[in-house]
Amino acid sequence: MNAIITVMVGIVFLTGCHPEQHPGDQIVSPSRRLTDRAEQTEPIVSLGEPRPDVLPTFELEVPFEILNGGVLIMGLEEPWHTIEPRQPFEELYLQVGGESFLIDDMSKLRRRVAIRSPDEALAFCRLKTSPRTYYLWGDSYETQEVEVLTKEQVTAGLCWGDKAFCEFLRSLESDHLGVITAEERLGWYGIGATKVSAIDQGFEIKRTLIVEDFTTEPGEVHLAEVVEVIGPEAHYTREETQVIDTTAPLPSSWHFPWFE
Predict the structure, then answer these.
(1) Which of 62, 115, 149, 189 is 20 to 30 A (C-alpha) from 21?
(2) pLDDT of the residue at 190
(3) pLDDT in tens, 198-244
(4) What is the DSSP string of the chain?
(5) Neighbours of 136 (CB within 10 A)
(6) In angstroms, how far apart are the furthest CA atoms of the chain?
């Protein structure tokens, strides 16, 4: 694995009117229909062969239901069991029926997860962009992205149950892994609040991500406003990505950790 992280990281949920929201998140009434979705007709994506020798290291506490009694875990396969620190060698697995399956694409969770509320939809989308899991996906060698948050938005619920990493994020003195230590910088860069809209048979989410493109040398960091749609059976699509044109240079601390 070329790109890994040095610190144990956890996902960030938000507080406010809803326990899993940012204080600035907005839930709005249905705005449009969920058109042209293939959730009911697309074939379920195969999980592949079960991994027989996975050592669980951390079970994610998720607000949405994983069907058939499944759980999402971080785990290690040989020969990484005995290496410290372990976190850089972890992968994300779905454990169900006594077997462990590697999850390296969001589509593998479609029709295996139930999404019933705006909070659950937002949490599911954050699997791809949380500090705990952003580097685990199949396209992470080319681009990595995390959602922009403030230190004030970091609570115990933000870290998938990882309280130690929650405290680490709260103690940051400079911006890191999407956590902005000075809230006024949100205005400087034109970063708006995350919005979740209920639409027919699903939810639409608008939020701002920090993105690093590793296909350039050195990696290019930019802000992007994205629109995502998720259906009740976890059919996920990225509808739109709009790069935010910032006049002020982005801090060097916004670059993602990189290991040779």
Answers:
(1) 189
(2) 80
(3) 998 899 999 999 998 888 776 688 899 999 999 999 999 998 888 88
(4) --S--SS------B-SSSTTB-TT-EEE---S---S--TTTSPPPP--SPPSSEEEEEE---SSEEGGG-EEEEEEETTGGG-SS-GGG-EEEEEETTEEEE--SGGGGTTTEE--SHHHHHHHHHTTTSTTTTTSSTTTTTEEEEE-EEGGG--GGGGTT-HHHHHHHHT-SS-BTTEESSTHHHHHTTPPPPEEEEETTEEEEEEEEEEEETTSSSPEEEEEEEEEEE-TT--EEEEEEEEE--SSPPPGGGSPP---
(5) 19
(6) 52
Pick from 231, 217, 223: which is nearest to 249 by CA?
223
For residue 120, being part of any structural domain is answered with: yes
Domain around 168: 26-34+114-251
Q: Between β-strands 143-147 and 71-77, what pairing exists: parallel, antiparallel or unpaired?
A: unpaired
For residue 184, is it within any domain? Answer: yes
- Domain membership flag for residue 21: no
Residue 54 to residues 73, 81, 89, Cα–Cα distance (Å): 10, 9, 12
Expressed in angstroms, the distance from the first to the final Cα of the chain is: 9
- 82 within a domain of the structure (yes/no): no
pTM over 0.85: no
Whether 125 contacts 11, CB under 8 Å: no
The residue ranking higher by pLDDT, 214 or 125, is: 125
Tens of pLDDT, residue by residue over 3-35, are 433 333 333 333 333 434 443 344 443 444 444
Model pLDDT, residue 17 = 38
Q: How many domains does the chain have?
A: 1
Residue 191's pLDDT is what?
87
